[in-house]
Write a structure and sequence with these properties.
- By secondary structure, this protein is an alpha/beta fold.
- It has two domains: 9-205, Spore Coat Polysaccharide Biosynthesis Protein SpsA, Chain A (Alpha-Beta Complex); 217-306, no CATH class.
- The protein has twelve helices and nine strands.
- Helix 8 packs antiparallel against helix 10.
- The chain is globular, with a radius of gyration of 20 Å.
Amino acid sequence: MNINMQPLVSVIIPTYKRAVFLARAVDSVLNQTHSNIEIIVVDDNEPGSKFRKDTEAIMKSYATDPKVRYIQHDRNRNGAAARNTGTAASCGTFICYLDDDDWFLPDKLSKQIRYLEAHPQFEAVYCGYERDGLKIRPYKEGDLAFELLSGIEIIYTNTIMIKRESAVACGGWDERFRRNQEAVFLLRFFSCGGMIGALPEVLVQFDVSDAANRSDPLQHERDMGLFLHINKAEIERCKLRYPNSCQMIYSYRYRGVLLNFIKHGYLINALALYRKMARALPGRFSHDCALYIWRRLTGQALFKEFEKERVDPYE
């Protein structure tokens, strides 16, 4: 196809302290079968820092490539801010976001464009991915606010393609958040009436070797509190779908916080949280914790009551 007939796709790559991986991410976009692209690398490192200098050195090799643009923040602001910077500078019909340590498979853009063109009821689409050796292929579509709020479904930033006008209209990325950023972004999108489609093909690869940006269990608890507090209106809206959705969301999410405490040896914090949630959700929280343990021990799907019967042609 003539490149002038292809829709322009803007791929925004925020980068922070991971210059060593950056070229792999950029090259994975340059090597896409869909050729009408612009890549916007947003450098969120502190000016003058070693990480800024390392990133500048990497980006010099792309200085003459008209498809690659390099924007530097005047201070570290966070990934959500970097994605907003990239979105504001973008010109594409569609936008994708890519973390600096991950990469796209060659057909990612072309297959997602074809999907959106064939399914006009959706303004966005997410795809499958490989992470920790596991290949995940999504199938849930539509308004997935409940799934994201409860943690039943995870939609990673790298898997999304969204119409630029929809990304802008929903208000973009909430810069108050350093965690759960993609969930908050999509909740804004769903609250504006947006619908997302699912492409059950693995088109993204994750590198999980770098743990530098992961939060500790105490920060995880604080981040979850903020996530649920800010999204109270969306939690209420989920009652239209599940009357007891509020209890489910708080129970499932704080069960995750509890298990994270236990995993990292924060047993006193785990006990305190269990007592707090058992009082707040009598019966419910204890039941959900016990059910989770039972299903893990017996190899059952953790949220099987929300799974639908389907035939997966990719298995």
